[in-house]
Amino acid sequence: MSQPQWTPDPQVLEQSQITALARWFVEHKGLDPDAVNDYGLFQQWSVAEPEHFWGGVAEFLEAGFVTPPRSVLSGSGVRDAVWFEGATLNFADRLRIGADDRPAVIVEYEDERSETHTYQQLRADVAALARYLRELGVEAEDRVIGYLPNCYEGIVAFYATASIGAIWSQTGIDYNAPAAADRLGQLDAKVLVTGTGYVFRGNTFDRTSEAEALRSLLGSVEHTVVVPTLPSTPALSSSVSWDDAIAAGGDGPFETVPVPFDHPLWVLFTSGTTGKPKGIVHGHGGVLLEQLKSLGLHSDFRPGETFFWYTTPNWMMWNIQVSSLLFGATAVLYVGDPLYPSAARLWELVDRHRVNVFGTSPGQILATAASQVEIPACESLRLISSTGSPLPAAANQWIRSVFGDRVPISSVSGGTDVVGGFVGGSPISPVWDGEISARTLGVALEVWDDDGNPVVDQEGEMVITQPMPSMPVKFWDDADGSRYHDAYFSTYDGVWRQGDWITLTSRGTVIMHGRSDATLNRRGIRLGSAEIYDAVEALPDVLDSLVVGIDRPNGDYWMPIFVVPSEQWDEGASADRITQAIASRASKHHVPDEIILTPAVPRTRTGKKMEVPIKRILLGADPAAIGSIDSTDQPEALRWFEDYGKTRTDLV
Predict the structure, then answer these.
(1) Could you give the C-alpha distances from 313 to 146, 155, 175, in angstroms and in order?
(2) Which residues, given as ranges, of the chain have pLDDT below 50?
(3) H or E segment at 308?
(4) What is the C-alpha end-to-end distance of the chain, expressed in Å?
(5) 3-class DSSP state of 559
(6) What is the tens place of the pLDDT at every residue in 42-82?
(7) Which of 63, 272, 337, 527 has the fewest CB within 10 Å, making it most exposed?
């Protein structure tokens, strides 16, 4: 297509924050004036001049340094960069921006009940819980963890933890205790904040027994605070209620402790593809700058607006959700199934709460389109963002059929790794259906072929060649940095490999082809194959198994599990046992779409399952051409997958 399907309104282009920042750079940092109205030129400059760019973002968007930095960027290379050395700040400090009587957080439930919390209440609750945590002996870099649904109290607990320089981490309460403990149990946390249950698709899930089981697996936890997220559930033993914890904290001012720029803010977990999930540690300053850029510039988000992204605490979008409060804006949380009781559910919420920026997934958009339900006017809506999987052109077309050119849809792709976006849209960038508009500001993204050569208009590995402030401070429990190195730098020396298979077009857009590694990314939730294998291969019915995830051309995500049956395989019962085992050991999100019997699971000569080659073979790659035949002792098993892939005409 030679012309984009959507172009920015000239007035919006003129008044956007990106345009204002570009003009500021022209005046203060020597940016070429032609770049003010040329996103491509601005993006190139932001990569070529990282000190000017990120220093300008911090100044223009008011990062709020308590102690100014001695330098913006020092160190060498992507991995060893040091950002804003000497600076102090606190991520939570920007909660001061919100006006007292402005709604800070609105929580809506499946049954349309909603609750509203103002900034005055939020700051008071954060301050009270922070004082309570200090009374419990929580100090800087101690860990406070959550086992919660998407709730107001989770936001309070996170900001209270951050305000005193402690470290927050959480899993959703839908994770079963062993899977949650695989993550949270690594942190030796002092305090657990847990819910009691949740409602999903009209069904009630009492999780008190699971919370008790989790606590029994966390030997370091000294104190438990219980949030009654499901009324009329039994109390946990030896715990304090949320209300009592807030009351114990008492009244007092909202305060934050200045910490160094790279002081740990939270731990987010990888998906656990090869063993237990790895804990990614991000710093206060890096996350703050990434959110100021991503939300403030690419979404053109402003104080006084309302932000809603459908998410759960298991996904990094929860962290983006709470970051909208950095702007003194209103964050809308939804607790429940996004398609229940109808596919119009989220759109009704957008309309009712006058949402300005709405984030969702391709699956939700396509499900709504297929259902043919009536969509409300959503008169305040000005931007839809989508992430979690590639956005098919049909989704863009449906959005325009409902909202016309008034509401663009911005396809975004990033990662838990940097808690932000590598590629996405902007208010001054056109949109081509089925493609992502551009590389985001400050991101030195290239596409490399198998030999490490940059390519354009050709599929390849997505790499980042220059540092970003929100790259991990470290991995948890990785004293020598070896796991961090292996995760991102083991393929290309000194260059970050993200694990996405993409095309960078000659016009600067990006086409996503899915994960190039073994990480599963189902409806925006990253899942670990190791957790699935732990459940399945413990069954006597199964000798071996392999799971892959494939983005179909129609926007669906297909996640089958291939199983080598044992002699005890029961045609009528074994598949049900697999499903139940996965749901019990991990979560319902991990349950595969299909269970397919296979004679063997190919492995490398070092014993690793060949998940990535199998995915590529199912998509039509020749096993010999991609080097798989030479790397295994089981070529016949690879040929079985090649033959099976030819029967699946729905994959390409």
Answers:
(1) 9, 10, 10
(2) 273-274
(3) strand 306-309
(4) 20
(5) coil
(6) 999 999 999 999 999 999 999 999 999 999 999 888 999 99
(7) 337
